[in-house]
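step=encode ok
step=design start
structure_in=
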């Protein structure tokens, strides 16, 4: 069974085509600069070679058609006919409280996703564009929505509510929702398979660390807390996001600088974090190089970045009354040994011991703690697209299986 996964942004579409019987990736790539000059599709051929196809892509339907044309292209296509694709799975950012799992897309689901656009104004409208495009171009193909927020719907009310007047939760749904849920769900399940332990009875802290970052406390296979909140701004210090900040500091800066809400949102989401402190870049690789050169601001920035992660690991160990596994994933978590070591250096009180040689791993599943460490520290590369494709296949199988 072939399943296509789409991840639509405001000016981009990423895609992967899976053969689900083998979990093989048949095709993958993405379109950039939709609606802008110089739009292009970059694809990865089966041999690893990259190819760029330039074409004017004014909107998402044209972009999806471009992807379909590429998938069936005689030179570098992966299927002879689009009817080989049995379903399309979509990453949808925000499902609010309406969705605690992946669902087959119908008119009611689309309406519910539209209602959540206020909560995910940058992503949900773009996600919907991809759904509409497939409806138009392949109307007979089932589509599935896989929500970034769904995994975190198991958080208890005392963890997801803000201590503001309760009426704002009732009127506007203001609460902590969490994000990166598909990644946290995939790696928390995969690490149990990798270690040969059951999810039931396990206490796992999953650290999805990249340009965006979040941590989740996963007990018995279910999320009980996570660092991101109403939006992806809360929690960790990130590439360009501030993470946790006193609300009073926000209003103070707005008054002093004469900023309106949109300008303040831009400052917190796009000009803060590593970029705001380091000032030269938001890229952790460049920060790491500057630290190696002894640059004081870089060292301060890195210390802040690691400290936030360490602090939340400690908090979530307390929330779960212990921890069995600390897991690193995401671009930084999977590839940067210095980040993993820096985060774990003061976790000795939990019984965490990192093996420096094992920690040199990049982008591979590995245990990086010592044999006598009381807590397993593990690297598990995330695969959100495979999780989306698996959910899509399972829902399609449920549709077609005899009742």
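sequence_out=
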């Amino acid at each position: 069974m072939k399943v296509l996964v789409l991840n639509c942004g405001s000016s981009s579409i990423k895609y992967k085509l899976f053969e689900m019987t083998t979990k093989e990736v048949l095709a993958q790539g993405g379109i950039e600069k939709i609606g802008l000059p110089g739009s292009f599709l970059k694809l990865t051929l089966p041999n690893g070679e990259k190819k760029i196809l330039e074409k004017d892509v004014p909107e998402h339907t044209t972009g999806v058609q471009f992807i379909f044309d590429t998938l069936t292209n005689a030179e570098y296509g992966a299927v002879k006919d689009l009817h080989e694709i049995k379903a399309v799975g979509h990453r949808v950012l925000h499902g609010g409280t309406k969705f605690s799992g992946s669902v087959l897309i119908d008119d009611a689901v689309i309406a519910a996703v539209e209602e959540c656009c206020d909560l995910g104004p940058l992503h949900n409208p773009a996600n919907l564009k991809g759904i509409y495009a497939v409806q138009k171009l392949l109307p007979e193909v089932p589509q599935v929505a896989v929500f970034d927020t769904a995994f975190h719907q198991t958080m208890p009310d005392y963890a997801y509510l803000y201590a503001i007047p309760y009426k704002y939760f009732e009127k506007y749904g203001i609460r902590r929702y969490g994000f990166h849920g598909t990644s946290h769900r995939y790696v928390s399940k995969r690490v149990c398979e990798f270690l040969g332990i059951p999810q039931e009875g396990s206490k796992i802290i999953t650290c999805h660390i990249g340009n965006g970052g979040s941590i989740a406390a996963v007990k018995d296979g279910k999320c009980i807390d996570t660092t991101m909140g109403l939006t992806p701004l809360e929690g960790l210090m990130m590439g360009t996001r501030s993470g946790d900040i006193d609300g009073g500091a926000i209003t103070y800066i707005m008054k002093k600088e004469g900023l309106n809400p949109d300008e303040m949102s831009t400052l917190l989401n796009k000009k803060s974090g590593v970029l705001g402190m380091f000032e030269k870049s938001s890229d952790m690789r460049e920060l790491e190089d500057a630290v190696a050169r002894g640059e004081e601001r870089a060292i301060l920035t890195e210390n802040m970045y690691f400290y936030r992660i360490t602090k939340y690991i400690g908090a979530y160990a307390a929330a779960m009354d212990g921890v069995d596994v600390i897991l690193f994933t995401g671009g930084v978590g999977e590839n940067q040994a210095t980040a993993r070591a820096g985060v774990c250096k003061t976790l000795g009180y939990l019984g965490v011991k990192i093996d420096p040689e094992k920690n040199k791993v990049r982008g591979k599943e590995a245990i990086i703690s010592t044999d006598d460490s009381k807590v397993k520290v593990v690297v598990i590369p995330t695969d959100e697209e495979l999780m989306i494709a698996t959910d899509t296949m399972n829902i399609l199988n449920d549709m077609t299986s005899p009742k």
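step=design ok
step=annotate ok -> The mean pLDDT is 96.
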